[in-house]
Amino acid sequence: MTDRCESAGNVLLADDSADFRSKVAQLARSCGCEVTAAATFDAARGIAADREFDLLLVDVALPDGDGLDFVEEVDLAAHGRIAVVTASPSLETAVRAVRAPVAEYLVKPVPTGALIRLLEEARLRAQTRRPPETGQLGGMIGQSATMRALFEQLRRVAPLDVRVFLHGESGTGKELVARALHGLSGRAGRFVAVNCGAIAPDLMSSQLFGHERGSFTGAVQAHAGFFEQAAGGTLFLDEVTEMPQELQVFLLRVLETRTLVRVGGTREVPFDVRVVAASNRDPQHAVAAGRLRPDLYYRLAEFPIEIAPLRDRSDDVPLLVRHFVARLNERYGRSRRFDAPSLRRLAEYDWPGNVRELQHVVQRHYLLSDDDTIRVHLPSPRPQTDSDGSVRFRVGMTLADVEREMLLRTLASCGDNKRRAARTLGITAKTIYNRLRRYRSRGLLETPETPDGGAPDRAEDGWH
């Protein structure tokens, strides 16, 4: 049963049958909705004028008026979907219902499944009316039990001087979590983010620890590395499992001694930096595969945090959609919104690209919409990825679909690094670029093109 809260769908039920009103109210509670009942035309008209409803469920034959007249005079902009019910269906009322902005024409006894579908859509619409601040921490947004638990972990660990290791799929918002930790920590220094998979191995030592003038060709002046740049603040080491093994040894020593030596230097420089590491690989699997030193992992993972994929917190999808649409409305001076069936489809989709993919889908449909009501059609859910990284394909998928999904899943597991994904698949990076351009041209891919070897949108703006 859905929790009764401010996100409950508001339903106006106009029907003179006390038994029908009671049954609908009971069913609505189980669907996370609250019912306001009216037994007459005048009562329903007065209630609808004062409040906003996510669903209007109106009997055609009210004691003091015609329910279809009520539908025709109600302020449609203030309410969600409209459904009419009748115990005496006729061609005349059916034609009027079709011509009116009525979503459903239901004949009593009304099928339970039809009512549940309308009530679920009302609850989804209600979730989009919640203030963006609800369930928000830093740049993250979520009201699900999973997100509330994550927020509580962050609030507890942020003020403590312990290192945090974040594990989550690509697009789940690991950098936003790290930024929230920094914001809650009270540290006065900077937040510095480093993508360990996007820096050339021969430059990583210099980038992390700095270098002295003349230490190598091109070092015309001394350079403070990321550790020194983050002094008094937080250093976020994203995709730390992509760091070369030889550099992991140096990083381990730096973490143990809390001092560093610049490349080409001899002086030990003490530092006060809170380190937050992250990976889209399972860290235990990375250790077993020899990609991550076990002693470094245990040094980094003083407090491990698992970030759930979006498919495991689908209740947050409508709230995220509202957040993205509100920002787009503010940018373009519009007042657009997704209709309830589209919200339901978005919530049911499995989102292999997680919040980042959802954001791109919302933006694409927002920009392509011809009016202020946005409607979306999504493909059927993609193949499921097991915890060991394997992918299960459905019987009946075309070979082209299998190839596309395998390429996209491999890219995600490689942190969107095309060169690394190409090596894994045994093809060239050019082949991957050609495939991605083809998918985009056919509308099969929502993510934007990114530079070679880089991961898109490092800030994961608006995670969420």
Can you offer a commentary on this structure?
- The protein is of the alpha/beta class.
- The chain folds into three domains: 9-128, Rossmann fold (3-Layer(aba) Sandwich), CATH 3.40.50; 136-306, 3-Layer(aba) Sandwich (Rossmann fold), CATH 3.40.50.300; 313-441, Helicase, Ruva Protein, domain 3, CATH 1.10.8.
- It is 42% helix and 16% strand.
- It has helices spanning 18-30, 41-50, 67-73, 91-99, 112-128, 145-157, 174-185, 201-209, 226-229, 245-257, 283-288, 294-300, 317-332, 340-348, 354-368, 399-413, 418-425, 429-441, and strands spanning 9-14, 33-38, 55-59, 61-62, 65-66, 81-86, 104-107, 136-137, 140-141, 164-167, 191-195, 234-238, 259-261, 268-270, 274-279, 303-306, 337-338, 373-374, 384-385, 391-392.
- Helix 5 crosses helix 14 (340-348), helix 16 (399-413) packs across helix 17 and helix 17 (418-425) packs across helix 18 (429-441).
- The longest helix has 17 residues, at 112-128.
- It starts with 8 loop residues before the first strand and ends in a 23-residue tail after the last helix.
- Mean pLDDT is 82; it is low at 1-6 and 447-464.
User: pLDDT under 50 segments (min length 5)?
Assistant: 1-6, 447-464
CATH superfamily of the largest domain: P-loop containing nucleotide triphosphate hydrolases
Q: Count of helices?
A: 18
CATH fold-type name of the largest domain: Rossmann fold
How many structural domains?
Answer: 3
CATH class of the largest domain: Alpha Beta
The amount of helix comes to 40-55%
Average pLDDT confidence is 82
Q: Rg from C-alpha positions?
A: 27 Å
Please give the largest β-sheet. Answer: 5 strands, parallel
Q: SS-based structural class?
A: alpha/beta
Largest beta sheet: what is the strand line-up? 2-1-3-6-7
InterPro entries: AAA+_ATPase, AAA_lid_NorR, CheY-like_superfamily, Homeodomain-like_sf, HTH_Fis, P-loop_NTPase, Sig_transdc_resp-reg_receiver, Sigma_54_int
Protein name: Sigma-54-dependent transcriptional regulator
Keywords: ATP-binding, DNA-binding, Nucleotide-binding, Phosphoprotein, Transcription, Transcription regulation
Modified residues (4-aspartylphosphate): 59
